[in-house]
Amino acid sequence: MGQLLWSILRDLYVFLIVVFLIERFPGSDLMHDVFRKTVMVATIGVVIWKLFGGMLSETSSVGGPRVGGPLRQKKTEGGNGHGLEWAVCEMQGWRAAMEDATCIAATLPEPLAHQALFAVFDGHGGSQVSHIASLEFPKVLQVCANKLRDSDEVRQSSRQDDVSADGSPGAVSGCKPHEAEDEAAEVEPRTLPAPTANGVEAGSARDEGGLSGKSLSMSMIAMDAFLRQLGNGLNSKGKSSLLQLSSPLGIMARHLEASSQRNAFNLVGSTAIVALLDKTGGKRSVTVANCGDSRAVLCRNGTAVELSEDHKPELHSEEKRIRQAGGSVKLIGPCHRIDGWGLNLSRALGDFHYKARPDLSAEQQKVIAVPEIRTVELHSDDEFLVLACDGCFELHTSQKVVDIVRVALRAGQTVMQAAEELVDQSCSPNLVKTRGKGGDNCSAIVIKL
Predict the structure, then answer these.
(1) Given this model, what pLDDT does residue 221 score?
(2) CA gyration radius for the chain?
(3) What element of type H or E holds 251?
(4) In terms of pTM, does the model score above 0.85?
(5) Where is the PPM-type phosphatase domain (predicted)?
(6) 15, 32, 56 — which closes off a domain?
């Protein structure tokens, strides 16, 4: 019924536009003056909404919302091993395109042989960055881990041989794919302050996180450097933008960027929530790297324990950095955005339009790819871990997400079914009733411990 009413209103509006154009001919006076002005105002409003409407919603998608309702077909996969059972579920939902991507590597070579990798990448402005990250991140992580291990071994050997500190190599820069950018090796991992609830303690990536934390931190920076180089290469081949030319972001890109500054990923990016889970027996732990507003939540005896903090522009530390980089943070519609029109998150892979200050380091730009690292020991009452894009948290709190999965598992459902239940309940049945929330892509990984 709603679709029929929309079709009638659309056809009536087109008819009025035709009448309005006929009136432009001399001697035609088919409309009352007030009605004529109403049609003009409505037309201007439609044009503005088509151009910039996507920027006023919580998250901008290249294609905007789907016509005809959400696409609920799901892609679900599962696996198990080493005392873990996991499932990943992805659903396009109301969006016109699927921009999320996920990554699972249950087996990694040395020096991460006892770790399992799980990651969710939530793309925006297009699916290119999230898709590339999901394919390349395990490779980048492995190279970084090898270089860090080799660097530590060389330093230890140098100390044993009484070699001065100046002689020991800083070889971590070698973890950059294709020798992307030297700044990747200079960024130190940043940790969240230790939380006071649920007995979870956040540790330094250099201490409790150990090799896992340092490898994740370095890999995120290296991945971003690789994307910058790749985007420049695509641009040099004539592909100045992977955005649809008619999209709001595509139009904005052409106005804001000089040809010499264009990168295929200037306004295409992705969040990243990545977990390395120690799958050995005895004392087990999980190390989480967060960049953006996707989220990691641990279920500890039925209670949600957040292992990440959403990176939003209005956070004090994030806003301070944005302003120091010459940007601003403004409340536009339901959320705060960088420079008033831009991103509603402050850390991401890609998005090089916001990382264009040559006089600033990688960790001082408006948007940065520096992750926050959190390492926690797993207890006997830890039941499962959820990694999910922000689409799963628009309608639900972290506790509600845990409740949905826990109820499904306790009802005898498999991990795959529990992941599907979470994704299903995260998609709005009616965007009008939920005021636009629940209209994003939904992707989640559930790991039963």
Answers:
(1) 96
(2) 24
(3) helix 248-256
(4) no
(5) 85-449
(6) 56
